[in-house]
Design a protein that fits this description.
single chain, alpha+beta, Cystine Knot Cytokines, subunit B, 3-stranded antiparallel beta sheet, 33% strand, elongated, binds 2-acetamido-2-deoxy-beta-D-glucopyranose, cytokine activity
Amino acid sequence: MLRVFMIFLFFALWCTCSSEAKKPVGCFSKKELVDHAEHFMAKYLHWSHNHMIQSLEDPNSRTEPSCSNFKLQTSSADYNNRSVSPWRYRIDHDEERFPSRIAVAECLCEGCVINGEENRSYNSVLVKRSQLVLKRIKCPLNPDMYSFKVTMVKVPVACTCLRPISSQQ
Ligand SMILES: *[C@@H]1O[C@H](CO)[C@@H](O)[C@H](O)[C@H]1NC(C)=O
Ligand SMILES: *[C@@H]1O[C@H](CO)[C@@H](O)[C@H](O)[C@H]1NC(C)=O
């Protein structure tokens, strides 16, 4: 009896998990595709993502930070303002992808900001994370209709400061 119950439980859980993560299958018009994609992506994208894209697109908040004009602000809550390997974000656009806009980090300096100046004995390097995206593809039998391909992409999210690789200790 317990065994039957365990098997039942296994299938119940398996069904819930697989329906959670399942992408819409079939061919859709462009409009239907966008609706499905937004619904699907809502599980993976958080409010902070949209908020960040909006603030990056706001023309009033547009500053062009660079390595030479970067000022370390040790009282700031923002990691980027206290980092010795500062970065900025730009928006990567791809109309064939959902989400079509992704914020990607770019390091401001090659070296790191030590004692108020760039020191090339250190390296600013990008930290990337994997993100799930949907790619729009044409349906093979009907080129006016579209389908999805689920893909993982590596998105630069910040920079960190490293010592260059060296054989000496
Ligand atoms: C970080 O620095 C930028 C540029 O000086 C500034 O506009 C922003 O408000 C700072 N962020 C925080 C949370 O202090
Ligand atoms: C840069 O960092 C190295 C290693 O810590 C240090 O020896 C050097 O004095 C620094 N250079 C400057 C200009 O601060």
